[in-house]
Design a protein that fits this description.
homodimer, alpha/beta, Ribosomal Protein L25, Chain P, Alpha/beta knot, 7-stranded parallel β-sheet, 5-stranded mixed β-sheet, disordered C terminus
């Protein structure tokens, strides 16, 4: 067994424990036995090989080995997204986790269709752990508290490239090709940002970008932004002469 | 009403008709009346304004105006994908349509989990029309007949950039940044391509590319490849001096 499990608390003295959903997944779904080998990760970039030492109701005790090589940090990308409804939320989080996005802010907008209730945010956070286990990512996608456009814009670092998805904007690729640092991208609800919201974003320095020449669904725009930043980050990591 | 509908047969003498699902959607779901204005598209890049002239069971007659401006062609991207199961197929097609991919080939692989039966291909084609109606795309994503790796590789144009998704490959971004033409990208099943399949692809000139530093689900890799090609195409369309 080389399945990966999320540790809510880091190992101490070579021991750790899985609790709650993680313990149930290992003990009941996968029917682990004492001595089985797994990998555990703390969601902050560290991972360890481990062996099952004890199995109790809702708790699996582990003996933990020396840490594995630390994973590369996630992309310096914050996506502030007016959450879509139902399954599309689950998809959004799964794909952003797989594609290396660092942070998702549920964006409160005038035309938003889904409220980021504490239960919804908890469901998103659980989806992040599931996706990390599946894709091998060691650092959780951070699910930030819900925020308004003004709130998200106020807390940016000064050298962040700020983008707002807009079907009438300029193409995404060239902007990313010219910028190697942190990116904040805003994605509005199905009905789009209001004129006032777009004006707030552009007045605060956001560039309006069209991700594709069509009207994209909320989660498509967000996923394509993450994929675009992921592809561009590898270009920026190369010495310039290799690009010619 | 400015909803968009797919025309199976092009207009003739200023008249056209919606049939089957399209007629039922307009007449029964949207309860159209004679005189209502819609837009129709033929899936080959042309679209027309139209008015409802007659409503019968499973057939809506239309009066069609002069053609609208022809849309830009889709990205010169063929994705050959070992189809995932269930809803993930539907998502794949919806997202590839929104992101402008030209052609999807259901790829027959050793470890594939979903067979591209005629019913499945028909379902995918229906999903393409739905997505085109929603996102405003005028040219259908072509769903090609299922093919093997050897079949797909044999039918390429000679100057196509051929990629095979592989978590141990080189980063995607720099390759796309250096290539402005047609792209063929192969995405294997959940269990990955076999060693023999990867060898066949690389022997035929495919570059192994890692889309992100994680193990991606089939549909995530395919969607991220489409997003990457879409972003790169806008870079290539710019005069070089604007990139500095």
């Amino acid at each position: 067994m080389s399945e990966r499990f999320f540790l809510a608390a880091p190992p101490a003295d070579g021991r750790a424990a899985l609790e709650g959903d993680e313990a149930r997944h290992l003990a009941r779904v996968l029917r682990a036995k004492v001595g089985d080998a797994i990998v555990v990760f703390d969601g902050r970039g560290d991972a360890w090989p481990a062996r099952v030492a004890t199995i109790a109701r809702d708790r699996v005790g582990l003996e933990v080995g020396p840490p594995l090589a630390r994973a590369a940090p996630p992309l310096p990308l914050t996506l502030a997204v007016a959450l879509p409804k139902g399954d599309r939320q689950k998809w959004l989080v799964e794909k952003l986790t797989e594609l290396g996005c660092a942070r998702l802010v549920p964006l409160v907008t005038t035309r938003g269709v889904a409220e980021a209730t504490p239960a919804a945010v908890e469901r998103l956070a659980r989806g992040v752990i599931e996706a990390c286990k599946q894709c091998g990512r060691a650092t959780l996608l951070e699910i930030a508290p819900p925020a308004t456009l003004a709130g998200v814009l106020a807390e940016r670092d000064p050298d962040t490239l700020s983008l707002v998805a807009d079907p009438t904007g300029e193409p995404l690729g060239p902007l990313l090709a010219r910028h190697a640092g942190a990116v904040l991208a805003l994605v509005g609800p199905e009905g789009g940002f209001t004129t006032e919201e777009l004006a707030t974003a552009t007045a605060a320095g956001c560039r309006r970008v069209a991700v594709a020449p069509h009207i994209l669904r909320v989660e498509t725009a967000a996923i394509a932004l993450a994929a675009g930043v992921q592809a561009a980050s590898a270009v920026h990591a190369l010495p310039r002469e290799r690009l010619s």
